[in-house]
Structures are given as C-alpha cells and as structure tokens.
Amino acid sequence: MRAIAGLQPTGFWARLNNFFAIDPKRSTGVPLNNQFRNPPPGGNDPTLYDDPVTVPAGDLAENPYWKRDMRRSYPKLSIVQQPDVVALLTVGSAAAPREDVLQIGDAGNKQLVEVKEEGKQGLSTYFAKEKSAFKGVLGPNGMPPLPASQHPQGKRYEMLKDQTYGGSYPCRTFD
C-alpha cells in the first residue's frame, strides 16, 4: 500500500491520508534523501575539487573591482582649456589643419609653441586681436552650430495601414 518513491505519513496520519486521498497508493512526491541525492552532500573529496578559473577575469591582480563595476562607470568629462581652443582656432586640428596658416618643419614647431604661449592669455585677447576668427566656427547667421544629427531635416515615420488599429477600435492613431 505504501509507495517506495517518496516519504509517506505513518500511523494515524497515514489512515487519514488514505481516507481523504484520491489515490492512496500515489507518492507524496517528497524524495528520500538517501536515494535521490547523488552524490550526497559532503560525499566528494574537497581536495579533488578543481576551481574553474577564467582568464583574465580570474586574475585579481590585473582585474580590480572598480574596473569591473559597470554600475559606476559614469561617462568621463572632456575638458578643453582656453589655450587649446586658441590653438584650434589658429592652426586647426590634426583632422582638419588650416593649410594657409600652419607652417611645415621646424618653423611649424616654433609656430605651435607661439600659439600655446598666446593661448595662455585667453580667448578674449585672441578675439580682440583676430576679429574674424570666430566666423569659421559660427553658422552663416552668427549662431553657434547645432549638435550633429543623422537626420537634420527630421525623419518622417510612415505607418502602414495593417499596423494601425482601424476605425473600430477606440484608439487614435496619427498617420
């Protein structure tokens, strides 16, 4: 009458269980530990355990927590000082150098040193000396440039009729 696969009640509770159970021979589903825990807890030799280490994540010397912590990897600020801006306005950048101003060779190196010294005085003195320096930076109507965008005129999204709810559903769709 008793199933071997699981732990069954005994005594008075066994009779009560048999009386109320739909199928008294069915197991309760509670497994017997000595049958179903293979290997049993503590059955393996702890000295034989091989710790799975992944390289380079397992190397704690070269992988500190602050480098792995993605929750606190905030964006880094990019700071441009006024001497850098004066140098960019005077001779341009490496990506877009001003060919008419920048000299080649040792004269160019001396020119860069002069520009750095001039930049230490600040942007206001540079703009006072060079009246047309900011015209290459500002837009045609004197406004600063807008942030870069993939779609400067805007992108219109066309919704297909089979993507809408139709007229019978009380929901507005704008097409």
Report on the architecture of this protein:
This protein is mainly alpha-helical. 27% of the residues lie in helices and 0% in strands. The chain has helices at 12-20, 33-36, 65-68, 82-91, 106-119, 123-129. Helix 4 (82-91) crosses helix 5. It starts with 11 loop residues before the first helix and ends in a 46-residue tail after the last helix.
Q: Return Rg in Å.
A: 39 Å
Order of secondary-structure elements: HHHHHH
Secondary structural class: mainly alpha
Mean pLDDT across residues: 77
Strand coverage percent: under 5%
**Quaternary structure state of the chains depicted:** single chain
Total helical segments: 6
- The end-to-end span amounts to 71 Å
Regions with pLDDT < 50 over 5+ consecutive residues? none
Task: Name the helicity range.
Answer: 25-40%
Main β-sheet description: none
Query: Using DSSP, what is the number of strands?
Result: 0
Shape: elongated
Protein name: NADH-ubiquinone oxidoreductase 21.3 kDa subunit
Annotation keywords:
mainly alpha, 175 residues, 6 helices, NADH-ubiquinone oxidoreductase 21.3 kDa subunit, 27% helix, NADH_Ub_cplx-1_21kDa
